[in-house]
Amino acid sequence: MYIMNENELADLYQRYTDYLARFQDPNIENMMNVIGERLLLSSYTLKKDEPYCGPGGIIKLALDSFHFANKIAKGLEMDTLGLSKKSLALITLLYPIGRLGDLENNLLIEQTSQWHRDKLGQMYDWNEKCQKMTVQHRTLYFLQHFGIKVTYDEMLGILCSGGMHLEENKFYLHNLPQIARLCVHAIDLAYENEKEKTKQLLNV
Predict the structure, then answer these.
(1) Which terminus of the chain is more solvent-facing, meaning fewer CB atoms within 10 Å of its CB: N or C?
(2) Phi and psi at residue 54, in whole multiples of 5°?
(3) What is the C-alpha radius of gyration for the chain, rounded to an integer number of angstroms?
(4) Where are the domains positioned within the chain?
(5) How far apart are the C-alpha atoms of 165 and 178, rounded to whole Å?
(6) What is the pTM of this model?
(7) How far apart are the first and last CA of the chain?
(8) How far apart are CA 151 and CA 88, in angstroms?
């Protein structure tokens, strides 16, 4: 588990919001004014041996997913295939915000049990006050709450961002739009890449 310092977190947030500013959407700007600080300080995972654990985890995963999606896209004729660069950015940059929690409560809170921290490496715990909903559905809830419109392809990209191995996503397996398929693959690559980095860090 790598803990980012204040300067690293500030740089991470600046890069993230710079990309979001390119949408020129006042509703996205408003959403970040409301949840931005919470989003920056939130972890994506529970345990220190899991990728994206610690402050900045959600945003780093979004940026890594965006990076991998762009690397994949460079090898494709996106315009010829009718793939939208805007959709690529929207899906990968916004899909993990549902991991934050609801409008008032964080999904993950700091683990108060020293035993769990020492013995299990569990740095965070589930917040029982947070309304139960999948990350993907909560992301779509956030977007509609703040008036951020998404296309059909973008909605499916967000819905299936947890991976096509999930039972609820298998329905779309052979009917997923190409841009959504690209983004889901990029998200998986980002997570697996960070998992390997975390493993190497722990073995040092």
Answers:
(1) C
(2) 115, 170
(3) 17
(4) 6-203
(5) 17
(6) 0.93
(7) 12
(8) 12
